[in-house]
């Protein structure tokens, strides 16, 4: 197995990447050290590469992520790939799957923090190894299916207008009546033909992605003071936050491009044709969490098609003309696209104008898709275990 994995890597591509001089003097020094380690990959290389990776990690976590130089992300991926080569070369017991789990974790760190170097070798390694270790028998928990919610109207407020619902639209009608007018709409059954509608479940996600490392949001809302994020495997996330009835906190795999990270999941969906009306390639994000996860009232700059695969979600919408009643955070808080109001328990003494806000609400059921125009305020809450996929487009 290890020889097959090692054969997937063309080390000459790393050598070519490291042979190009860099303007940053410190990065250039790191580049030369990596090039030296590549030439030898001795038993001491693993320790040296770990030191380099930790140094680069500090560079990646200094300042705003968008301002991090691609040079440092490239170098981070190089150290990850070379560390994995060292691990595989030293791996003698092919029955020890803990080594393989560690390699998958390193691959995901390279994908999350680095760049897809060497023909995206980290993604290829992770996929190949995950297929192997997922087929090794182990004790699997018995998981009940999502219980359907029969009284959906119980979650709706009779004094709030409802989001319009339509059957599947052709592209021309969608553009003319909804996108151009920036009018929200729930499109019933839009994704009923996706393979994901039959395949996606907790068991399936554990099978195809259980050992993959992802960022998990911990806390009820990202606006809460105790909200945080943690990197963990999907298996651990499911065990700790989905199957654990005594969990005291909410965990949410939210707004993450898991479908790029795990190609087999991407094959289970199709991009709605409405997204092709945009000028750029769509951004696809995966959302997975237990009942009660919340995305606070906020806006996004792009058109959004939010699709529901498993479970149910309550959605509240407000047009941007209602902003004066919604009390967004200030620019200084770096959350000016987010309202200070707790939609479920609004403090009308602190936010008295909110009572004047005119909104829409609705519930997404499996197979549904919601079109959310740019800069439209939206609040989303899971009414059950939920899998959703969102598509942002210009």
Automatic annotation (TrEMBL):
Pfam families documented for this protein: ARM_KDM8_N (PF24472), Cupin_8 (PF13621)
Cofactors named for this entry: Fe(2+)
Keyword annotations: Biological rhythms, Cell cycle, Chromatin regulator, Dioxygenase, Iron, Metal-binding, Methyltransferase, Nucleus, Oxidoreductase, Transcription, Transcription regulation, Transferase
Family matches, as SMART domains: JmjC
Domain JmjC: 260-394
Keyword Transcription assigned: yes
Chief localisation class: nucleus
Transmembrane segments: none
Localization: Nucleus
Gene Ontology annotations of biological process type: methylation; rhythmic process
Gene Ontology CC terms, in alphabetical order: nucleus
SUPFAM superfamilies given in the database record: Clavaminate synthase-like
GO molecular function, one term: methyltransferase activity
Protein name listed in UniProt: JmjC domain-containing protein 5
Organism taxonomic ancestry: Eukaryota, Metazoa, Ecdysozoa, Arthropoda, Crustacea
